[in-house]
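Quick question, first post here. What does this chain look like in 3D?
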Amino acid sequence: MIDINTIAVVTARQTLEAAFTDEPLKPSTFPDKDGVGQYLIYDNGGVKDVVLDTHQSQANRIEPMFDKSGLIPDSTVKTPERVSFITALGHRLADAAIYFSNLREVVQSALKEFMSGDATAVAKLSPTSLLFGLWDSRSERSRAKITRIFNAEIRAHNVVEVPAAGQYISSVSRLEDQVTKDLSVEGLLDCPYSGLGGVIAHGDIVRNARLNIRGIRALKGGADTALLQNYILGLGLFALTVPSNGDLREGCNLVVTKTTVSTLAEDGTREDIELKHSDVLAFAKNAAKEFGVGEALEFIYDAATASGNVNGKAEAKETKEKTKKNGKAKVVAVA
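> Answer (accepted):
Ran it through. Tokens below.
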């Protein structure tokens, strides 16, 4: 379907428009240094562009679409609060719910194998970790860093910010001799509001998705390298073509008006191609069958282990600080 030996990147560019054309769009908000939510707006050639959905958000939206597809193991994670598919975890195999689970040693072994050059074990446990990436960055862990192969984001061009204002009026009379702050917390105080009201896009709204074929080509799996690469290629093309939900959040509902898929070859040649999701799904299922989808496992999070780890580090830090303070940290060498 895609020759990984000649193609460098496969991209899908989608033009979108607001489902409700008379209303401002609400982008993602990010806290500034004071914790106040802000839009990610930047100058682009004299006009303002805004990020409507980051690549992290797009990955979190797409990954659960693999559930019950037959393309990946439908492994679950059990915590005191719920049981969910592993695809719901933000950090995938590097997530704390996995590290402090009954299968932590299995996962750490797989990540260490990846660092040694063999991605097979990770592909069997959590193939989407190879697709969307992870970083097992804590000091006592594998330190594995898997660069994402698939990337998507949505941006709007030439936007104008819209302010918002409102007034909350309490339905009861103010209580006498009460602190204003306490009344506000309980909803017993009139309260004005002003803040972010969204943006109006005068330019294009575009979703760009990219599948890094070079990244797939870099994956190794011993004698099964070709099967592994074909398997991840199938998953990547699935992510690239699967219909996405344009209802991003309240006030940001988008619809696709045009999709163009293209390839960039290693010789610099660009070519538009037709890539139907139904054809991709058939290819991905065959590649998954040939590689062998891993066994579905149950990861059981152990809060006691997590708590012991945190408390142990805190105690060790406290002991170290006391030792240093008492002047016992120095070791004098005797000739």
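The longest helix spans residues 303-325.
The two ends are 72 Å apart (CA to CA).
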